[in-house]
Amino acid sequence: MKAKRASTAQLTKLIRLPKNPTRKERPLISFLRHFSLDLSSSATTTTAAAAAAADDDTAVVTQVVELLQSQDVNWDGEKIRQLLSSSSSPFTHSRLLQVIRRVGDSSKALKFLEWIEQYTSSSSSPISSSLPQASTPSAYQAMFELASREPDYHQKLSHLLQTSKDRGVPLNRDSASLLIRCFGRAQMVMESIRVFNDLDPSVRNTYLCNTLIDVLFKSDRTGDALRILKDMLLPDSSSPPNNVTGSIVFSALMKRNQPRMVVSEKEIIELVFKMGERGIFPDAVRLTQLITKLCRSGSTGRAWDVLHGIMKMGEAVEVPSCNALLTGLGRERDFERMNLLMSEMKQIGIQPGVVTFGILINNLCKSRRVDEALQVFEKMSTEEENAGVAVHPDVITFNTLIDGLCKVGRQEEGLALVERMKSQHACSPNTVTYNCLIDGFCKAGEIERSHELFERMKEEGVSPDVVTLNSLVDGMSSHGRISRAVEFFRDMQRSGLKGNIVTYTTLINAFCHVNNIDKAMEFFEETLSSGCRPDSVVYYTLISGLGRAGRLDDAWSFALNMREAGFYLDTVSYNILISGFCKKKNLDKAYEMLKQMEKEGIRPDEVTYNTLIATLSKAGDFSIARQVMGKMIDEGLVPTVVTYGALIHGYCRAGHLDEAMKIYRDMGSTSKIPPNTVIYNILIDSLCKDEKIEAALSLMDEMHVKAVPPNTVTYNALFKGLREKNWLDKAFELMDQMHTHACNPDYVTMEILTEWFSAVGETDKLKRFVEGDEVSVSSM
């Protein structure tokens, strides 16, 4: 009967009796009550007893906690003993954990635990049977949790950890995880590693490995993290990686700034595939980051392999990852693989979006393949081409195409595209749209059309910006309308549109080119007063302008003022000054500049040394020129064909033809620098002037052998030498060679040949030469 009533009790618990039963429900309720009368009475008694015990349990825990939290608690007093002994139920391990968690101080919790252990060791203790061992992994876990929330948590945790070791209490998984994370947060990474290594192997699992790997990555201990991951990837690993592992690893490896990252691109890729064999892949964001990172470092081929490798493994790939690869391929102008990837996307059901098509269109336009970009544009909105889904171009797509058309001089087509975007796609042109068109018409010299577009954009409510201003100012300045450019700039200033450093640089450069340095300096002063910070381009422009105007002292004074203001000249600026002083034969000032460069830590380059060597060679100071060349080599710079050409030209001018020929021979044998047309022309001209025609013709033959193309200057030098010897037959051969090498005679050629051939009665030959016919003896 007891068993039967128990079943009924269970049934009554499952069935909630309605307060107002219906007519049909009343017999069933009466039946249930008949069989549950005794049980209900018993259950009520039991429930009341349980509630009383629970209240007593809560009261005891509360009173113990209050005693522990007081400053004057007597750990050996009778108060705690009385509380524990007077309780109607034994002080269990569950009550102990409640006290630890509520006491609020890990030191007091540990002291209470030690008191409990000492108290239970007494045979007379009433709780020794209910609490045979107080120091358990769960008790220490509770204290670890308590300590982790305290200000000096790392010290408290270290003390508790050592205490647990001394008492032989092993860590459970939750305690180990908490300690690893907390020590990692406190930059005590070695403690985290020690906790993990000291664990019983049976306790270690994937969750703990993930926790430690995360700490190691955050502490820049990449090598240690990957060693743990390597063990997890072993076939017989008891802690195989999961998706959380992948998230931690891929997030860490994809960070942009990794000061102590020791993982190469190849290793990252290998890791992706090893994880992929376990069914763990980077999410769409991480995969996109990886592909972008590979492409930016020039490893687009590896990025291609990663994306396709993941596809072959069956993992779904999303559009952003494909877009990242398309961007990298576009940077390398690899349109073949761009089109292949677009085709593959459609085959596997990845629908390209407007960004995808925009990447392809943008790169085609940058490569000046505008017609192909227009074809892609037409296809993108065709449903048949895109799996029944039309991709509508946005304003960015239109702007890209319009800019591409303007860059190749097809401004009218770009203008027509604006009308199409408004009529067919309800897409309004913006400031960028008009900037592309205005810049295109300006560069084509159609300044009036640019102004018309400027007025049109204002009428349509499209606000011009500083780019609009700069395009028009540059266009007018570049086509000789500087005054109008200044007037337009002033109008824009009055309307509230201020210029930037590009605006001022454009105007400064324009005035420097027309040698109006004073006006350029006025705009430089305005640059400073307007709050625009001058950059190196402005200084270079002004110094260059002053140098070209021959105002080298002003240029140097300007450079000194800039240095005092905190700006330093670069190598190019110094080269301009050095070249200017060299042209004025003021070598002392040029050397002063060179010393100033070295003082400021700016290394002279090939241009610096070549300028000095050329100047010294022209002046006949060959000894010093050779010293400068030696210093150039000592600085790690390799002499160029310009360097040798300067020396050869100097020796030839000074009449030291043998020295010039020696340098020429050294170029081919020692320096391995092939001479160019200029050097051959210098030597041939000098040999002809020295009446060494055979040697000059021999050099001409060497030019043919070494595939160095002669020019009109080469032939003119030889014609002069042959005229002195009256070698007509050789002159006829050279005249035919000129036609063969497509060298057109100039006025010097005609002057030499006309004077010579008229004197010897060979004007018919000259006529045939002018008409492009062969004139040599062998052709007659």
The parts where pLDDT drops under 50 for at least 5 residues are: 1-15, 27-45
SS-based structural class? Answer: mainly alpha
Quick one: biggest sheet? none
The helical percent reads over 70%
Q: What is the mean pLDDT?
A: 84
Number of helical segments with 4 or more residues = 41
Radius of gyration: 45 Å
Please provide the count of β strands. 0
Distance between the termini: 141 Å
Shape: elongated
Beta-strand fraction estimate? under 5%
What does this structure look like?
By secondary structure, the protein is mainly alpha-helical. Helix 8 runs antiparallel to helix 9 and helix 13 runs parallel beside helix 15.
What would a concise description of this structure say?
71% of the residues lie in helices and 0% in strands. With 780 residues, the protein is mostly helical.
Q: What attributes does this structure have?
A:
780 residues, mainly alpha, 41 helices, elongated
Any chance you could write out the topology, listing elements then pairs?
Elements: H1 2-14, H2 26-69, H3 78-86, H4 93-103, H5 106-120, H6 137-148, H7 153-166, H8 173-185, H9 189-198, H10 206-218, H11 222-232, H12 243-253, H13 265-277, H14 284-296, H15 300-312, H16 319-331, H17 335-347, H18 354-366, H19 370-380, H20 395-407, H21 411-423, H22 431-443, H23 447-459, H24 466-478, H25 482-494, H26 501-513, H27 517-529, H28 536-548, H29 552-564, H30 571-583, H31 587-599, H32 606-618, H33 622-634, H34 641-653, H35 657-671, H36 677-689, H37 693-705, H38 712-725, H39 728-740, H40 747-760, H41 763-770
